[in-house]
Design brief:
- This protein has 186 residues and is an alpha/beta fold.
- The protein has 6 helices and 6 strands, in the order βαβααβαβαββα.
- The protein has helices spanning 26-32, 42-46, 49-56, 73-78, 101-111, 146-176; strands at residues 15-17, 37-39, 62-64, 83-87, 115-122, 132-139.
- Helix 4 links the parallel strand 3 (62-64) and strand 4.
Length: 186
């Protein structure tokens, strides 16, 4: 959110979350930027309620971060090539259902990998299988734990995700010949 605060061509106007305020820091973060986080359920997502809310709000782009629910096909179709996710590993390794957060970092540590990283990709019908837009890696050391790996990867996510979003949006706008559109986030 902060990255886009001073941009005239991009503005975060919608933040959504399926977890409770006690389980997700986004409620406080969005409040600091004068935005309310809209809470929704898995059933709301599956029934198309969230897609309708986003469309009614005039949302053009969706950026997922820490979002674990499966995105319905109708939402993917409604936001084709405007629905992006960040994953805490170098896909295609350590992706798919059940591979999120600590589970990813534990698998990377157990495999004795020498590097890990983050991937920004288009959202597709299958978990973590959309086309890759960007990857950044970090070196791992003997003795790295899932926690230390997670911290290294999170640093990469914070460093690159907003820049990648901005680049993808600007490139899309330039190719379409349209006026810059407002960036929205869920």
């Amino acid at each position: 959110m902060g990255h886009f605060e001073l941009h005239t061509e991009a503005e975060v106007v919608f933040v959504g979350c399926n977890r409770s305020p006690e389980d997700a820091g986004i409620y406080e973060k969005s409040k600091a930027f004068g935005l309310e986080t809209v809470r929704f359920s898995r059933d709301d997502l599956r029934a198309g309620k969230v897609t309708r809310q986003l469309q009614e709000a005039g949302v053009d782009w969706i950026a997922l971060a820490g979002f674990l629910l499966h995105i319905p096909l109708e939402m993917i179709a409604a936001f084709e090539h405007r629905l992006i996710n960040v994953h805490p590993a170098l896909l295609p390794k350590y992706g798919g259902k059940g591979m999120y957060g600590h589970h990813v970092h534990a698998a990377v540590a157990k495999a004795g990998e020498l590097e890990s990283g983050m991937t920004v990709h288009w959202v597709s019908a299958d978990y973590d299988e959309g086309d890759i837009l960007f990857q950044a890696s970090c070196q791992l050391e003997a003795g790295d734990t899932p926690e230390t790996i997670g911290a290294k990867v999170l640093t990469l996510e914070h460093r690159y995700y907003a820049d990648v979003l901005e680049h993808v949006i600007r490139e899309s706008v330039a190719q379409s010949g349209e006026e810059p559109r407002i960036f929205k986030e869920i």
